[in-house]
Amino acid sequence: MAQPTVDLTIRPLRIDSDAERALVLDLIARSTSVGHPAWFTFELLAHRQRESAEALLERLAVSAAQRETPKREVVLIAETAAGELLGFAWVSTSIDHFTQRPVGHLEDLATVLGHEGKGVGSALMAATEAWARDQGLSALTLHVWPANTRARALYARHGFGEETIRMKKNL
Length: 171
Ligand SMILES: CC(C)(COP(=O)(O)OP(=O)(O)OC[C@H]1O[C@@H](n2cnc3c(N)ncnc32)[C@H](O)[C@@H]1OP(=O)(O)O)[C@@H](O)C(=O)NCCC(=O)NCCS
Known about the structure:
Elements: E1 8-12, H1 18-33, H2 42-65, E2 73-80, E3 85-95, E4 102-111, H3 120-134, E5 140-142, H4 149-157
Parallel strand pairs: 4-5
Antiparallel strand pairs: 1-2, 2-3, 3-4
Helix pairs in contact: 1-2
């Protein structure tokens, strides 16, 4: 597994940081853009992702204003010792349909362009798993486009196996 080739730290997002909010809004579009099915346009996916990112940031701002630590979701930020932002992971929680046990769900993961292949994604995956274990969750789930081979390889290296394959016929 890739070891970080940069000196990086993983920590929760600082919701009062303009740069970190901008990073999430920027990267969240990137996370669905790689290998998406032909029936979606990038513009549609980016628009929908931006809506969900804005709702996420709003929830986190409300929690911060109420001085609460959100327990059901977290945004993890990877940064260098010098404060350069490298990537993010967004993890939520839900009840697994089959086991009826609480699980973590990796909603999004992305590394800043130009910083791929340095172990940032791997470090974010490890931090995601640590967060989920700390929450007492029984498993981690995620969705990935079939053609996103790089992300799928990363997930496989981190121990993820395929569970369902969602299929669609447009009418
Ligand atoms: C998928 C993604 C998060 C991986 O992040 P990363 O920081 O590059 O990951 P790492 O460096 O920890 O490891 C990735 C592996 O792919 C390799 N890799 C990463 N970028 C590469 C590149 N540009 N060219 C060739 N290989 C690359 C690394 O060498 C490493 O392999 P190894 O573990 O065998 O050493 C990143 O490519 C990304 O942001 N992709 C776009 C968004 C995306 O697809 N997100 C997932 C949505 S489901």
